Amino acid sequence: MIRFRSIGLAAGSSSLVFAVVLAIGAGAQMSGFVARPLLQSTVEGDANKEVAMLSITIAPGGSSGRHTHPGDCYGTVFEGKVELRVDGREPRLVSAGDAWHNPRGAVHELRNVGDSPVRVVNTLVVDKGKPRMQPVPQP
User: Fold this and answer.
1) Does 36 reside within a domain?
2) Measured on CA atoms in the order 107, 72, 75, 28, is the torsion positive or negative?
3) How far apart are CA 86 and CA 71, in angstroms?
4) What is the pTM of this model?
5) Under 8 Å CB-to-CB from 55, ≥6 apart: which residues?
6) For residue 126, what is the enclosing H or E element?
7) Per the domain annotation, does 7 fall within a domain?
8) Fewer CB atoms inside 10 Å of the end CB: C or N, the chain?
């Protein structure tokens, strides 16, 4: 189950939409994954884009499920280690202090391969008004 808590004025209604899409759309694939919005903002000079920063916790053995974004995804592991799986690439182990970038439309998944919770911050630069995450079925 996705837990959602809005903090400050920066977390708006589209953050709630993101949490609902995560909870409903990825259902069976996603497990032990909690996303909490930290910030939502427009992109200066581009009214068609927005930025969303999310604090993510993934339980041991948990996964984000396979998904894409309507824009770029930048991630940093703050605690623990995850396996980043991107279609067409070899899985990559990402540990605390490491970061990655997934371009628009890249099908990817984060899996906690350790024995303690993982803490990640994701920054999405996406098309404004579109769902921030689109689940993709397992092949």
Assistant:
1) yes
2) negative
3) 15
4) 0.78
5) 35, 36, 37, 38, 119, 120, 121
6) strand 118-127
7) no
8) C
